[in-house]
Design goal:
Elements: H1 13-17, H2 31-42, E1 53-59, H3 63-70, H4 75-81, E2 86-93, H5 106-123, E3 127-131, H6 136-143, E4 149-158, H7 168-175
Antiparallel strand pairs: 1-2, 2-4, 3-4
The structure holds flavin mononucleotide.
Length: 205
C-alpha cells in the first residue's frame, strides 16, 4: 500500500514515499540490506562528530533476541510491530565522550542518523515505523544499557505487508489521511510567529 505525501511544494520522491505503516510482510530482510540501512545511519552528521548513537538490532530468526525487544514494546504497538521481521532499539549517548558533560545535541543527532537509516530503508523498498511507545527502563535493564545512554525509540522495519490482514481498528488507522501543519505555521522570518516572506507566492499559509 502506498500513501504518498500530499505536498504543498514538490519534494524528493524518497521523502514523498515514506510513511509509517502497521502492516508488515513476514518476508525476512536480507542481511545486506540491513547492513546498508545501518551504514546510512553511520554517515549522518553530528555535533563535534560525537556520533552519539547506538542501535540494538533484533531479527525474527533469533527468536530469543527478537522476543526480548518485542517484550519492551507497549501492548498497543506490539500488536502490530510484533509482525515486522526486524526491530531496532535506538539509543542516544547523552554525555560527551571527552569529559562526560551533557551533550545537548544527542537526541538531535540520533534523530538525524535515524532519518538516514529510514530513507535508506525506503530506497530499498523497505517500510519503517518508529515507536516511542516502549518501556525504556525495561529496555535499559534487559539489554544492559549503561549510564549516560538513553533508549529513545524502537523502529519496526520490513517489507510492506497486506493491510487487509490487520485487525479492523488498525486497518482504519492504516488508511487514515496523513496530516501536516502548513509551512506558514512553522517557517518564520523576522520575529517568532511571523510567516516567512519566502512563502508569499505559495498556498502555504
Ligand atoms: C519518535 C517517534 C515516536 C513514535 N511513536 C509511535 C508509537 O509509539 N506508535 C505508533 O503507532 N506510531 C508512532 N510513531 C509514528 C508517528 O505517529 C507517525 O510518524 C506520524 O503520525 C506521521 O505519520 P507518517 O510517519 O506516516 O508520515 C512515532 C514516530 C516517531 C518519529
Amino acid at each position: 500500500m502506498e500513501k504518498l505525501s500530499e505536498t504543498q511544494i514538490p519534494i524528493h520522491d524518497l521523502i514523498r514515499r515514506r510513511w509509517s505503516p502497521r502492516a508488515f510482510s513476514e518476508q525476512p530482510v536480507e542481511p545486506d540490506k540491513l547492513r546498508s540501512v545501518l551504514e546510512a545511519a553511520r554517515w549522518a552528521p553530528s555535533s563535534r562528530n560525537e556520533q552519539p548513537w547506538a542501535y540494538l538490532v533484533a531479527t525474527k530468526d533469533n527468536a530469543e533476541g527478537y522476543q526480548a525487544l518485542a517484550g519492551v514494546l507497549m501492548d498497543s504497538n506490539r500488536a502490530w510491530a510484533g509482525n515486522s521481521p526486524v526491530l531496532i532499539l535506538t539509543i542516544a549517548h547523552t554525555r560527551l565522550e571527552k569529559d562526560g558533560q551533557p551533550n545537548r545535541h544527542a537526541l538531535h543527532d540520533l534523530g538525524q542518523a535515524t532519518a538516514n537509516l529510514i530513507f535508506q530503508a525506503t530506497s530499498l523498498g523497505l517500510a519503517t515505523h518508529q515507536m516511542g511507545g516502549f518501556h525504556a527502563d525495561a529496555a535499559r535493564e534487559r539489554f544492559g544499557i549503561p549510564e549516560g545512554w538513553e533508549p529513545v525509540s524502537v523502529i519496526a522495519l520490513g517489507y510492506p505487508g497486506n493491510a487487509e490482514l490487520l485487525p479492523e481498528s488498525l486497518r482504519e488507522r492504516e488508511s487514515a489521511q496523513r496530516r501536516r501543519k502548513p509551512l506558514g505555521e512553522f517557517v518564520f522570518s523576522g520575529t517568532w510567529g511571523h510567516p516567512a516572506s519566502i512563502l508569499d507566492s505559495t498556498e502555504t499559509k
